[in-house]
Amino acid sequence: MKKRFLSVLTVAVMAAATILTGCSGTQTAATTAAPAATESKSDAATTEAAKAESKTEAKAGDKKEIVVGFSQVGAESDWRTANTESMKSTFTEKNGYKLIFDDAQQKQENQLKAVRNFIQQDVDYIVIAPVTETGWDTVLQEAKDAGIPVIIVDRMINVSDDSLYTAWVGSNFLQEGYDAVGWLDEYLKKTDRADKDINIVTIQGTIGSSAQIGRTNGVEEKMKDHAKWKMLERQTGEFTQAKGQEVMESFLKTYNNIDVVIAENDNMAFGAIDAIKAAGKTCGPKGDITVISFDAVAAAFDSMIAGDMNVSVECNPLHGPRVSEIIGKLEKGETVEKIAYVKEGVYPADTAAAEKPKRQY
Ligand code: AHR
After folding, report:
1. Among 46, 75, 193, 357, who pairs with 41 as Cys (CB 3.0-4.6 Å)?
2. Is-contact 350 187, C-beta < 8 A?
3. Is 265 in the pocket of ligand 1 (CB under 6 A)?
4. Could you say which of 3.30.70.20, 3.40.50.2300, 3.40.50.1010, 3.40.50.880 is the CATH number of the domain covering 66-171+317-344?
5. Residue 10 pLDDT > 50
6. Mean model confidence pLDDT for the chain
């Protein structure tokens, strides 16, 4: 973007600079395209960028593709597959983009390498779906020094300086945790168990990821209002079906009084359901164990329709168009929202059959 922005506006900016010498502008570096370019490059580097740009554009007014480097977490879940698909189908040649896609296989070290590669390739934008929240300061400073805007998608990052990224779009994971507890509260009332002891286990996502932190904390916070609810144990299932199954098998061996399993994504819930059945127990609205999940992917609706899962709290993966909209605004030098939450719903089993045909993922 920094070069694109320069190429489109070099003449205008130079003219304006002549008139307004010393004027610093009013938009913040974190939210607009222009300061990201001007702040991070010295005058000499800026001239270099403008020269490099003029090499790649045949004549003024020609449209050049926007090069986006996207570092994806991995392919651990149905949600992730839908997210990758959303990004790949948005950042196409037809839409004016060249996408450089990197699958980090759930390892932050791979993401750091990918981002450094993107910087070397001098992409226009870096988009990161971060595995975990911490550990980003150094590499994002490198991106900033190179004048490349960074957009964070899905999970959040925890950095000492917010200007290291331009914008974030994703889910309110804490709210998702609250919603799960809100649903359970209502469900227990409806099934005449409001005053009963309720034993819960949680299969957590990747420890240190926003999705895990928000959902775990949201549930923990709201559980304080329910003196009769007890969290027996929490263990990570790394957001995968296989690990979810393994963790549930071990919970079932340790506890014979589990009333509720909270799986921090649908795939781990599918694994948990397999483990419950293999242990000779039942689950779902008519079963022994209530299954609460997150994501609301298509297969979760099938599971609810089959009577296995009780509820899935939505986590929307369709971020491609959202990121593209942010880039579109930055290209025009417009201000973008620094933080944008996606609106999400709660889908209990009794709504699954009616809702499934309306789902996009
Ligand atoms: O960050 C979103 C979470 O990551 C989804 O809940 C999960 O399925 C994915 O792996």
Report:
1. 46
2. no
3. yes
4. 3.40.50.2300
5. no
6. 88
